Amino acid sequence: MIASVRGPVRHIGLDRVVVEVGGVGMLVHTTPATASALHLGSETELSTTLVVREDSLTLFGFGSADERDIFEQVQTVSGVGPRIALAMLSVLAPDRLRAAVSGNDLATLTKVPGIGKKGAERIVLELRDKLGMPSGAAAADTAPAAGAAPAAAWRDQVAEALVGLGYSAKQADDAVGKVADTVDESADVSTRLRAALRELGPR
Question: CA 149 to CA 153: how far, in whole Å?
Answer without folding.
Answer: 7
